[in-house]
Amino acid sequence: MSDSGSLRGAYTPGRTATAYRKPRKQHFGRAGSAIKMAACSISRVMNHLLIQLGAFAWLSESPAWALSNAFDVREASIDSVHNALFTQITTCREIVSAFIARVEEFNPTVNAIISLNPEALSIANKLDERIAAGNVTGSLFCIPVVLKDNYDAVGTNTTGACLDLANSKPLEDAPTVTALRNAGAVILGKANLHEMALEGLTVSSLGGQTVNPYDKTRTPGGSSGGTGAAVASNFAIFGTGTDTVNSLRSPANAGSLFSFRPTRGLISRAGVIPVSFTQDTVGAIARNPKDLAVALTVMASVGFDPNDNVTALVPPEVRGRDYSASLYGGSLTGRRFGFLDGFLNHTASAETTPVNDVMADMVEKLKGAGATVVNITESIYNTVTLAALDVQIYEFREVLDAYLARPRLGGSPRPDSFAELYNSGRFLVIPGQSGMIRSSLVSSTANTAYLDSLRKIQDLTQALDATFVRNNLDALIYPQQKNLVVKTGSPSQSGRNGILAALTGRPVVHVPAGFSPPSEDAPIGVPIGMEILGRPFAEGLLLNIANHIAEKFPMRRMPPFANGTVEARAYESVPVIRPDTGNIPGVYPIGVF
């Protein structure tokens, strides 16, 4: 679409976008009602019909009506969408169409979306029918959501962004996807990821290289980088992701976003392409804490799932919790945070100094708000040492074999096992992952080294609990990454700090903490984020802290490239999105490891 065909402008909070669309009769009724209320001091009854007819005639001839006050989806929230819907400012179909239009306009730049749901508009029509019938239920009613493309969702393929899984077609939803649909969400489409969720660069054989919305020379983090780039660019209200080591928090760090990694067992992982039974979790990425809390409430509502037995660990008092209620009350005053000094890189450089400066500023802000920040210098909090306990290489082959062998997974041709996939030549393994794949082919959970790692993870978990008790902490805080998110073509997403939560199963909420100084490649700087790690099942407390931080120190900013309105489009059907695989850096060969 050419710029001459768009009505575009910089986003101002609270501003309503103008975009051409055909008038709808229900708006004439609302306008007439508004005029009626203004004139009610003259006559509530006798002038009612005349005023409505006059309003109708004036509006139908007015050029101002053709340029109507359409709902602006930029930085939209669950509340703002619902307000627009239930006051008849817009329809569900128009909301879904507006997000699809943004994907069409801006996805060629960031390459975040692998596919759109062909049923998205039909689902929106049914939701509009429910509004007309007065049958509106669900906390996510008409909320467009993108799924990381390792979630099973009927009507879309589940590919893990791998060419060899391009035809993999689930016959049932993941339980979390069912929960989202039951709450009224519209599954808009599938987002790219680092292939098979194994690293943080978000490059894949099926989806190509996703780029950072704030600096197109950099990666978007990962492995849920497609979701992060999509949510940052306002392609949906929120999106889902998975996290084996860093993968929900890394894209939030790179995209000025909020995310959560839940306590192990809180949310079922069934129906999601797995990597590690011990370390895998599922969660969401959003632009504000309130939407994040709603997403957590819905996803956790699955409860106990016999297809994921760690969900049995959830205490009865936690089941069915409404995390939105946790946002309110309390303050930062009196909170005690432990700052993990070992999760900084104290060597000054253009990549590390901005992170250190942002974190130092955040610590001072927290202190100024009445919190106490304790410097934690225990030697166990060293990511290099902790990385040696990562158990993915022992579990990956076994859990992937089990996923691919499920009778409720269809599609053909597709691989039936880990070995078949990684002998197909239709995959992308970055050079730094080659050793892991080779080890996974021969390693198993019967290895003595695996059992030794599990014992050391238990020791680490006990030491972490002791740190909380000894220092009387509410939470630990630290940067998600010691350096700015890396450039495309890098060997790995180095410097990330997510391993502590991944090994111990402790919950984390990620918040935007600031930006690096602006540069030619990053007009407003590169986003920098902070993790807030808590005790088991302390998601409510962490969200409360995150909400207070977001209100007192708002850091979320929209990427400039996507900060423009997009002309309203009347779609007959959902367009087909074709990801750019021609942008894969040459250092990442296809089909070899």
UniProtKB/TrEMBL annotation:
<dbReference type="InterPro" id="IPR023631">
    <property type="entry name" value="Amidase_dom"/>
</dbReference>
<feature type="domain" description="Amidase">
    <location>
        <begin position="94"/>
        <end position="543"/>
    </location>
</feature>
<protein>
    <recommendedName>
        <fullName>Amidase domain-containing protein</fullName>
    </recommendedName>
</protein>
<dbReference type="InterPro" id="IPR036928">
    <property type="entry name" value="AS_sf"/>
</dbReference>
<dbReference type="Pfam" id="PF01425">
    <property type="entry name" value="Amidase"/>
</dbReference>
